Amino acid sequence: MLLAALALMLAVPDDPAPNPQIDYAGFVTLTGDVRTLRAKRLLGFAAFKAKATERATLVLDARSADKFAEGHLAGAVNLPLTDFTAEALAQVIGPNRDRPILIYCNNNFSNHGAPVPLKNAALALNIQTFINLVGYGYANVWELRDIVDFNDPAVGWTAKADAARPA
After folding, report:
1. Confidence (pTM)
2. What is the C-alpha separation between 151 and 157, in angstroms, rounded?
3. Which residues, including other chains, have CB under 8 Å from residue 68's CB and lie 6 or more apart?
4. What is the set of domains in the chain, with CATH numbers?
């Protein structure tokens, strides 16, 4: 159904003066190409945690800097999705485009409150982050599939003020 809606949108005539810096058709193609890869790269929590300990693996949190500061998975680094550029990604990830990158977002948590409010499922940050990383040439992306409670000690949640975190 989503692909049919996207096809309908693409059938609309182009804007008479399209912006050469915006490529919606390219985005639709990239999204379709990423779909198959992403389906093979969803990890359960135990596998995600195990992969996070592998040499050179990066756990990337693409939420806002403010939300990241309020809490995140231990060991994660932050680069907000809105700040993704080729240069910023290279600085955070490094020169190795084959480096394993693990991602998660608000919708991986059952807490549904600050700093991980539940997002519309079709707009979950995991989707956009995965597409963007692959679009920038980082194809070794792995995504947390499961929903976890950040209060569970096994999750390894780090918060600015752990003492103030709800029980």
Report:
1. 0.85
2. 7
3. 61, 76, 78, 80, 115
4. 45-155 (3.40.250.10)
